[in-house]
Design brief:
With 513 residues, the chain is mainly beta. It is 10% helix and 37% strand. Strands 21, 22, 24, 26, 27, 28 and 30 form a 7-stranded mixed beta sheet that branches. The protein is globular. The site of copper (II) ion has 7 residues, from loops.
Length: 513
């Protein structure tokens, strides 16, 4: 080789090597530590960090010993082959052999005792989504407990304090395990019913491999018996990742509760389209017509096509547009025209129902807050835990580098959430608390007070939310599109002075998302 050619060749080789080393070290640098203690995450407030490592352990934050009626349940995590219709069977991970798992139904004030046995080959937990319970019962692997190992068991013990629609799911590798079927409904009945329903129906919406959609475990369309004139309470739960655009046709309806919180003076809606974010629950009330049926349908609002990057790296954030997601009530024909539903407007929780006197609900935009935080949500291509992928960020960072929010017991906390992702919904879920929605895109709410445990933040939208820090512990706040959570979008809300003996990472095998 001529010396000049050789020189160029060597230089190119050197550059290539440098590039390779660069990529390798970027990937390496993004790898998570083998063991992370969630009480000692970066906070920017060093003194408080010290306190949290020496304070009360989450294991001590258990339910009071007060006497309550006891309801006991047994759940066994086990593999089962599930027929979801349309010729498709799933090698599912189940509780007690069914998907959804058994409905757990108790009364307000009951002590709920759930014995969980794990016969799977991997660890599991149960998280009680939306339930305000003591931290030790929250079921987050590596934060409030170790994942229940194969062949072992674990008992959850808490009092169901507030009536409403909730659900449960595994919070060990939650994207995989909830996706495979480890979920079910948790219903807390009110002790003082003000309305008598002739029918009560629980419908869980789920998706499988981002391609098959089921209502109540079937893609064939669920069928529910109901008689003419029946007043029906329909509890809708989104256990999937996508946002579901759902409406009822054939009867006007009320949204009586969202995320287990009653709406004040709900008004009648006709074919209004409800966007149900992952993890959210909507209670709908309708009366069966005299001779026709009622149908629950998924509506395609002709959203823009997902772009190539999204298709390559992550697709399930797009809105589910699938006719499999439907259910019929009663035997009669449905009178509404399903094909024109897409032109109906969206339901707007920020103007729905009536306000209450402020004295009865003091959390407001004018209240004095002890702590205020800004969370800006986004996504970008990059290395996350050693892999080049679409990562989902809060304030530009990914788990575990997102500084935790630190609160004290009794604090009034306000959080501003802005979604800067160009086309990803982010349903943000706070564990252990309900929060009040104060503003939407800077505008105060004008209808009923809205309390949620998961808020669907659409692209370019913002919300202010507020909560009272009345439940000490180490609590996750994360996107409930579990694929986003698994790619970085989760962080902690930690009370000062709470520690955990558990850790997240490959050493313990605890992976909450
Ligand atoms: Cu998200």
């Amino acid at each position: 080789m001529k010396s000049k050619t050789k020189f160029v060749f060597n230089m190119l080789l050197g550059l290539l090597l440098l590039f390779g080393v660069g990529i390798y070290s970027l990937a390496k640098l993004s790898e998570q530590p083998v063991s992370m203690n969630m009480a000692n995450m970066p906070s920017g407030k060093h003194d408080m960090q010290q306190m949290s490592s020496s304070g009360i352990s989450v294991t001590k934050l258990t339910e009071d010993t007060v006497e309550s009626p006891v309801k006991t349940f047994d759940l066994t995590a086990e593999e089962a082959v599930i027929d979801i219709g349309n010729g498709k069977t799933i090698q599912a991970w189940t509780f007690n052999g069914t998907v959804p798992g058994p409905e757990i139904r108790v009364q307000e004030g009951d002590r709920v005792i759930v014995h969980v046995k794990n016969t799977l080959k991997e660890g599991v937990t149960i998280h009680w989504h939306g339930v305000e319970l003591p931290n030790a019962e929250d079921g987050v692997a590596g934060v409030t407990q170790d994942a229940i190992p194969p062949g072992s068991d674990f008992t959850y013990n808490f009092i169901a304090k507030h009536a409403g629609t909730y659900w449960y799911h595994s919070h060990q590798e939650s994207e995989k395990e909830t996706g495979k079927g480890l979920y079910g409904a948790f219903i807390v009945e009110t002790k003082h019913p003000t309305t008598v329903y002739q029918r009560e129906i629980v419908s869980i919406l789920h998706e499988w491999d981002r391609s098959t959609f089921t209502v109540d475990g079937t893609s064939l369309g669920a069928k529910y018996a109901a008689k003419p004139g029946d007043l029906v309470l329909l509890r809708l739960i989104n256990s999937g990742d996508a946002t579901y655009n759902m409406t009822l046709t054939g009867s006007p309806f009320l949204v009586s509760a969202i995320d287990a919180h009653d709406i004040n003076e709900p008004t009648e809606l006709n074919e209004r389209i409800i966007e149900i974010g992952s993890g959210q629950r909507y209670d709908l009330v309708f009366r069966m017509p005299e001779s026709s049926g009622v149908k629950l349908v998924n509506v395609d609002k002709n959203e823009k096509q997902s772009n190539i990057v999204k298709r390559l790296f992550f697709t399930s954030s797009s809105t589910a547009k699938n006719r499999m997601l439907q259910a019929t009530f009663g035997d009669g024909e449905v009178t509404g025209n399903v094909n024109v539903l897409a032109q109906q407007p969206f339901f707007d929780m920020t103007t729905y129902g009536s306000p209450v006197l402020q004295g009865n609900d003091p959390l407001s935009i004018n209240a004095k807050f002890d702590a205020q935080y800004d969370l800006t949500l986004g996504n970008m291509l990059g290395f996350f835990n050693g892999v080049f992928t679409m990562k989902f960020t809060i304030n530009g960072q990914t788990f575990p580098n997102i500084p935790m929010l630190i609160v004290k017991k009794g604090d009034w906390v306000r959080i501003h959430i802005q979604n800067n992702s160009p086309d990803n919904d982010h349903p943000i879920h706070l564990h252990g608390h309900s929060f009040k929605v104060l503003t939407h895109n800077g505008e105060p709410l004008s209808g009923s007070p809205i309390y949620l445990s998961t808020i669907l933040v659409k692209p370019q939208e913002s919300y202010d939310i507020a909560f009272v820090a009345d439940n000490p512990g180490l609590w996750m706040i994360h996107c409930h599109i579990l694929g986003h959570a698994a790619n970085g979008m989760d962080m902690m809300v930690n009370y000062e002075g709470v520690s955990t003996p558990y850790s997240v990472g490959s050493k313990s095998g605890n992976r909450p998302d």
